[in-house]
């Protein structure tokens, strides 16, 4: 992409289930691609904004109890909500009447659903609108959470938190009609004893 980017990692010594790491691999690769393709500006644009000519992308891994967090940060342009609005209208996701009221949170939700790209052209790295839905599907499959924070011209932070192991989840075991099921505690909102 003819961009200079410094990539920094930390937390590589944290141990987690190989199945979780294998599932997260493609999602993390997609996040790094998005950070460079969509977030980090060209060198001339960065200099005009009084930024370092070299962009910065980091991936930090940390334990949070029985979960592991993958936090990706870039110092790029942030999510262009106007570009998301234009694409959402052109793809028929929202009407022209709704476009003005599309909040940043709703724009991020559209990006996570897939089919929306802020790239003007399709390349090997971007423009197909299938990037963040891969991330969303992976996080959903692992019963995790994803948070996206972005600030125009300052960058984007994506925080993904998933269980350390999918083989040793803390569960609620339920017997109903002779069938035993195990429900991950993360999915339990309320319990009620029924006579």
Strand content: 25-35%
Please provide the ordered H/E string of secondary-structure elements.
Answer: EHHEEHHHEEEE
Q: Structural class from helices and strands? A: alpha+beta
List the uncertain runs: none
Going across the major beta sheet, what is the strand order? Answer: 1-2-3-5-4
Distance between the termini: 64 Å
Keywords:
195 residues; alpha+beta; two-stranded antiparallel sheet; 7 strands; flat
What does this structure look like?
The protein is α+β, with helices and mostly antiparallel strands and 195 residues long. 30% of the residues lie in helices and 27% in strands. It is built from five helices and seven strands; from the N terminus they run βααββαααββββ. It has helices spanning 18-39, 43-48, 81-90, 104-113, 131-141, and strands at residues 5-10, 55-64, 67-74, 145-151, 155-163, 171-176, 179-184. β4 (145-151) and β5 form a beta hairpin. α3 (81-90) crosses α4 (104-113). It is flat. The relative contact order is 0.17.
Give a nutshell description of this structure.
The chain has helices spanning 18-39, 43-48, 81-90, 104-113, 131-141, and strands at residues 5-10, 55-64, 67-74, 145-151, 155-163, 171-176, 179-184. With 195 residues, it is α+β, with helices and mostly antiparallel strands. The strands form two sheets. Strands 1-2-3-5-4 form a five-stranded mixed β-sheet, covered by helices on one side. Strands 6-7 form a two-stranded antiparallel sheet.
């Amino acid at each position: 992409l003819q961009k200079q980017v410094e990539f920094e990692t930390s937390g590589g010594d944290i141990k987690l289930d190989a199945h979780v790491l294998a599932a997260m691999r493609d999602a993390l690769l997609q996040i790094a691609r998005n950070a460079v393709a969509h977030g980090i500006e060209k060198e001339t644009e960065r200099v005009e904004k009084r930024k370092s000519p070299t962009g910065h992308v980091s991936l930090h891994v940390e334990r949070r109890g029985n979960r592991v967090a993958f936090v990706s940060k870039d110092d790029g342009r942030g999510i262009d909500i106007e570009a998301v609005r234009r694409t959402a209208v052109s793809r028929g996701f929202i009407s022209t009447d709704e476009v003005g009221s599309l909040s940043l949170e709703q724009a991020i939700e559209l990006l996570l659903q897939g089919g929306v790209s802020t790239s003007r052209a399709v390349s090997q790295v971007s423009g197909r609108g299938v990037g963040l839905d891969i991330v969303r599907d992976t996080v959903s499959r692992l019963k995790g959470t994803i948070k996206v924070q972005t600030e125009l011209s300052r960058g984007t932070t994506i925080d993904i938190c998933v269980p350390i192991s999918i083989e040793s989840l803390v569960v609620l075991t339920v017997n109903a009609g002779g069938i035993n099921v195990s429900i991950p505690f993360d999915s339990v909102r309320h319990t009620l004893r029924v006579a």
